[in-house]
Design brief:
1 helix; 4-stranded antiparallel β-sheet; mainly beta
Length: 275
């Protein structure tokens, strides 16, 4: 739980998190073509609720929380897939856990999160790998944690999440050329612990949700040409604390299609009719 996920080529990296007993520094790598999983070099620090991004073929792990010492982290490190080594990079300016990160314009942005109790953040900082420096940029309109960031059409979108006063936060995007955040149409639901991915030139948001005591997984998509959100088909299985990723040009993508969807839909229809 509370791990990070990153994709390099056909490899999915599952990084850090915790196993209910302790925080983890481990990193597992699953190859989606060979369907094999292996353990690769561990991080230099144990991290849960960390932020993860991929830039120039390297995996970055930033911030998070180390429970044994009750410490929120600002340290950051980079994994070289070719040498199987983690190395330190410059630490962030601010300790952050439950933040979100994305790569945009050959830099890494880390936004929001929280530090200590009752202290959600709206600050945003950007890492330049050429100078090994973190720099603050314009803050978000809302403090938020347990949200998701995604780069799309040259902008950084901040979606969902919560803070200590609200769990119904606006949707906003950052334009790096103007160093400004502007609001965009709100999603058709509010949620935390959600994930966003870009697929087929569209933002997809996958989230857990609760409706009158019923829990499930909801999917929405954003069309920026129409500047509106659409409801997409929900997942077949309910999930919380999920991670998502997109693998481009996967030759055996059909192997991962849900093989029992027709049977599942028939069962859902029968259940709905019985109600």
């Amino acid at each position: 739980m509370n791990h990070g996920t990153a994709v390099v080529d056909f490899d999915i990296y599952v990084i850090g998190g915790h196993d209910d007993w302790k925080d983890l520094d481990s990193c597992l790598c699953f190859n989606a073509v060979t369907k094999t999983c292996r353990e690769v070099a561990p991080m230099n620090e144990r991290r849960r609720s960390l932020s993860v991004a991929v830039l120039r073929g390297a995996v970055y792990a930033m911030g998070g929380h180390e429970c044994e010492h009750r410490e929120d982290l600002r340290t950051a490190e980079r994994y070289d897939c070719k040498t199987n080594q983690w190395s330190w990079i410059a630490p962030m300016n601010t300790e952050r856990r439950c933040a979100s990160a994305a790569a945009l314009n050959d830099k890494i942005y880390v936004a929001g999160g929280h530090v200590s109790l009752f202290n959600s953040l709206n600050s945003v900082e950007v890492y330049d790998p050429d100078t090994d420096r973190w720099t603050f940029v314009a803050p978000m309109h809302s403090e938020r944690e347990d949200f998701t960031c995604v780069a799309f059409h040259g902008c950084l979108y901040a979606l969902g999440g919560r803070n200590w006063t609200s769990d119904a936060l606006s949707t906003e995007k950052y334009d790096p050329t103007e160093d400004t955040w502007t609001e965009v149409p709100a999603m058709n639901f509010y949620s935390d612990y959600l994930n966003a991915e870009v697929f087929d030139d569209t933002i997809f948001v996958i989230s857990r949700y609760s409706d009158k005591g019923h829990f499930g997984s909801r999917v929405a998509c954003f069309n920026d040409k129409e500047n509106r959100w659409y409801q997409a088909a929900n997942m077949n299985v309910r999930r919380s604390f999920l991670s998502t990723c997109v693998i481009k040009n996967l030759p055996n993508a059909r192997d991962y299609a849900y093989k029992h969807r027709d049977k599942l839909m028939e069962e859902k229809c029968k259940k709905k009719m019985a109600e």
